[in-house]
Amino acid sequence: MTSKIRIHLADDHQVLIDGLTNLLQTVVNFEVVGSSLDGTTVYNDVIQNNADILILDISMPEKDGIKVLQEFYAQKNTLKVIILSSYDDLKIIKEVVKLGAKGYLTKKSAGENIIEAIKTVYEGQEYFSDSIREKIFNSFTQNNPQLNNNVYIENPILSPREIEIVTLISLEYSGKEISEQLFISLNTVETHRKNIMKKLQTKNTIGLVKYALKHNLINP
């Protein structure tokens, strides 16, 4: 029998916790093992119930989500954390990722994305909702004359994240630069690169550039 993914919820609104609990309990291998209504108890609560995933709000009484993450970071605790917040400010997103958060969702998108986010993060990858990912990407592409702004195309082969990776590789961004710009780990970038090359049946960067040009991801 496959072990269940143990989830702890931290938000200052009981109604939201109850709603998420009801939603997550519909998934066979999910188990909500606890919840916290203020930031001061989150660290000890999570340790006590041995959670795999923490869903954490930024705006929490007594101790906000940033300070909670700082506590995990200081203790070198590698718990997988997904931020669920009303805020979509890039400074906040960048800060929580630096502190180890593996995912970021807006509360508006939670119903559509929370289940996929938990599964993705549990498997060791990062997850950002579409609106957050687009905001991140747009933040550094506006001043790049080589970039076609319409990168979010319907593509039967590559996912939206893979389209972003191909675009940046084609613009000669290094793996480290891509990881910094998209707020994902270098290991995740390399995994995407390998998957993309396999899907496109190419062995080098030239093949990726040709694909980007053919599909108007970059301007020649």
TrEMBL record:
Keywords: DNA-binding, Phosphoprotein, Transcription, Transcription regulation. SUPFAM superfamilies: C-terminal effector domain of the bipartite response regulators, CheY-like. InterPro entries: CheY-like_superfamily (IPR011006), NreC/VraR/RcsB-like_REC (IPR058245), Sig_transdc_resp-reg_C-effctor (IPR016032), Sig_transdc_resp-reg_receiver (IPR001789), Tscrpt_reg_LuxR_C (IPR000792), WalR-like (IPR039420). Coiled coil: none annotated. It comes from the Bacteria. Residues 151-216 form the HTH luxR-type domain. The modification 4-aspartylphosphate is found at residue 57. Residues 6-122 form the Response regulatory domain. This is Response regulator. It comes from Flavobacterium resistens. The lineage of its organism: Bacteria, Pseudomonadati, Bacteroidota, Flavobacteriia, Flavobacteriales.
